[in-house]
Design the sequence.
């Protein structure tokens, strides 16, 4: 498969009143054409910050990319002008945000932003843009799409709003879709429908997907590869079946062990002791060292790099777990 996205040595820094902290320290992450890569980890692990760095849209003006390369189809996005980025965002790379309730402007009909996106990136007439918008709403399964264009966000359910966001994201047939926890705040049946739509986009349109989630069950079902994040760094990456069958980083193993299984009877679920270090507490060693059962002196002195532990399988650990046989 042809490589679509390659992130190398990307650091996102945030200026505070007293100091400058590194919120994201990403060694490398790749995504190929037609591939769905899942980015998983605890809240605050850097998943959404990774997405923001690709789009170069940060929630605060105090955040900036300090170093690294983000190469999309051979072009380093960090060297692009604002005009070049505006052409890429919304057309080549699109994003579905976490909260469908607040992602749409309540004073505009839902058809307005979809039509604007089409006209901005294709230059077609308003009539043609409207027809394409109707087809996009039809693709995501919204009833009576022509009438739906004239409705306001408050008239739609949460699931319908998220379908609108997916329609807006796919209407220009992007090569890369970033889905940042797209099923947050939706009930289970609606979650299933949204996941089906994203999978449909991948299979029918050939769209590559960077899928950000907490839900490892969804990852097992949908993802081609998985990248596990902890405290702003990727600690393990590999093919989904390999990581689930034989995790090599202690954090990944403990994360998988904490999943409740209907086939097992347990009095208590395993928990990971300790807490995640804040960016201000991070020193020169492994960020998981304070919680790791396999910690050694070396772990507190140096940051373990991502090292090959199998085919398409890497782990950032000086004492990786043995491969399952």
Sequence:
């Amino acid at each position: 498969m042809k490589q679509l996205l390659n992130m190398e040595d990307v650091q996102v820094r945030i200026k505070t009143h007293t100091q400058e902290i590194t919120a994201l320290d990403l060694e490398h992450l790749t995504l190929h054409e037609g591939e769905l890569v899942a980015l998983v980890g605890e809240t605050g692990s850097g998943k959404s910050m990774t997405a923001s760095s690709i789009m170069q849209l940060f929630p605060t003006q105090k955040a900036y990319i300090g170093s690294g390369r983000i190469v999309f189809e051979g072009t380093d996005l960090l060297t692009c002008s604002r005009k070049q980025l505006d052409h890429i965002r919304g057309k080549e790379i699109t994003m579905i945000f976490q909260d469908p309730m607040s992602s749409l402007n309540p004073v505009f009909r839902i058809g307005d932003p979809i039509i604007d996106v089409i006209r901005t990136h294709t230059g077609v007439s308003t009539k043609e843009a409207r027809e394409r918008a109707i087809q996009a709403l039809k693709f995501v399964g919204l009833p009576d799409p022509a009438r739906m264009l004239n409705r306001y966000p408050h008239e739609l359910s949460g699931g319908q709003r998220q379908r609108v966001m997916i329609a807006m994201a796919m209407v220009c047939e992007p090569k890369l879709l970033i889905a940042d926890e797209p099923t947050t705040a939706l009930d289970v049946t609606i979650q299933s429908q949204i996941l089906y739509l994203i999978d449909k986009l991948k299979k029918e349109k050939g769209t590559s997907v960077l899928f950000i989630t907490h839900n490892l069950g969804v990852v097992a079902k949908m993802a081609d590869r998985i990248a596990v994040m902890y405290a702003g760094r990727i600690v393990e990456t590999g093919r989904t079946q390999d990581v689930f069958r034989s995790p090599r980083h202690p954090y990944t193993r403990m994360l998988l062990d904490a999943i409740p299984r209907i086939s097992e009877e347990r009095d208590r679920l395993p928990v990971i002791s300790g807490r995640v270090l804040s960016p201000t507490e991070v020193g020169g060693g492994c960020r998981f060292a304070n919680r790791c059962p396999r910690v050694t002196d070396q772990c507190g002195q140096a940051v373990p790099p991502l090292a090959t532990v199998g085919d398409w399988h890497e782990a950032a650990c000086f004492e990786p777990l043995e491969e399952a046989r």
Observations:
- The mean pLDDT is 91.
- The domain at 3-102+175-223 is CATH 3.40.50.300 (Rossmann fold).
